[in-house]
Design a protein that fits this description.
Length: 122
């Protein structure tokens, strides 16, 4: 069983940056592909980014491409999401997820964190 804990969310002005972290425990973190998703009030949870177990491959939603960067440190059992040039529409609860059962952008992951709130003010 894998436990995931996100941190690093907060309130930031438009154009600012945040770095989210997702710390994993209880499993073989280095063997899992990892994903980041977000959910705004009244909307479905949507794919943001994903990174392969080795960190050698990444995938991004079109809405964040060029602004967000996913990375990982397997020695620290942690995956990161660097978010730059933030926009008010990036406001959401951000979730990390581990071990996708199908494609990275689908919501079918075996393990999920509790989420961290990101609020971007205009």
């Amino acid at each position: 069983q894998v436990q995931l804990v996100e941190s690093g969310g907060g309130l930031v002005q438009a154009g600012g940056s945040l770095r989210l972290s997702c710390a994993a425990s209880g499993g073989t973190f280095s063997s899992y592909d990892m994903g980041w998703f977000r959910q705004a009030p009244g909307k479905e949870r949507q794919f943001v980014a994903a990174i392969s177990w080795s960190g050698g491959s990444t995938l991004y939603a079109d809405s964040v491409k060029g602004r967000f960067t996913a990375s990982r440190d397997n020695a620290k059992n942690t995956v990161y999401l660097q978010m730059n040039s933030l926009k008010p529409e990036d406001t959401a609860v951000y979730y990390c997820a581990a071990d996708p059962r199908t494609s990275w952008h689908n919501r079918e992951y075996n393990y999920w964190g509790q989420g961290t709130q990101v609020t971007v003010s205009a």
